[in-house]
Amino acid sequence: MMKGTASNHGQGVQSGLITPSFGMKGNGSASVLRGPVPARPVPQPHPKDEDSLVQMAEHIPAGMRTPMCAHCNMVIRGPFLVAMGKSWHKEEFNCAHCRTSLADIGFVEEKGSVYCEHCYEEFFAPTCSRCQAKILGEVINALKQTWHVYCFMCAACQQPIRNNTFHLEDGEPYCEQDFYGLFGTGCHGCEFPIEAGDKFLEALGYNWHDTCFVC
């Protein structure tokens, strides 16, 4: 049995302890494609994505103000877009890889550049270990794999294990309640579980915390 805590602070695996963590983006690098890019459907956000990374640019009509374009550093004298706290000429707000216009479709920011959903999925988005779909939102890193929030579930109750402690039994994660209900040993004195590392003793046919076996 191994025990871990799902939290949004820290990540990695230690001996005997598994510490899943939350992230927002995957790692990767894009390679340049040669030749024309064929038409393709815009990917739809996965229904299990939480805190989706996909954003939409805001359209601002002419006459409101004349900001500087974040791409060309020229004054914009007409309608423009606002995205990521910056202003853009509509014709210059494009995917950094395939150059598709992002003026009217969702985009994802990655390392200061913007990408259409297709390119982000292809080059950066991690794959969920359970459903094998790309993750365009909050990511859980656990058991050396990546998961949608609602795909990292207790093997018994099938409820998501989010910021809760979980235990590993036969390679499957269990929430704390189900683990102790199925595999745990309870203290006859306080009726709470005897956890790994607790001092306990066996007496009168029962198990006890050492501090619970008193006169």
UniProtKB/TrEMBL annotation:
Compositionally biased intervals (Polar residues): 1-18
GO molecular function: actin binding; metal ion binding; muscle alpha-actinin binding
Keyword match Phosphoprotein: no
Origin superkingdom: Eukaryota
GO cellular component, one term: adherens junction
Region (Disordered): 1-20, 29-50
UniProt keywords, alphabetically: LIM domain, Metal-binding, Zinc
Pfam families referenced in this protein's UniProt entry, alphabetically: LIM (PF00412)
Entry-linked PROSITE patterns: LIM_DOMAIN_1, LIM_DOMAIN_2
Gene Ontology process terms (BP): actin cytoskeleton organization; heart development; muscle structure development
Domain LIM zinc-binding: 67-125, 126-185
Alphabetized PANTHER family for the sequence: PDZ AND LIM DOMAIN PROTEIN 5, PDZ AND LIM DOMAIN PROTEIN ZASP
Protein name: LIM zinc-binding domain-containing protein
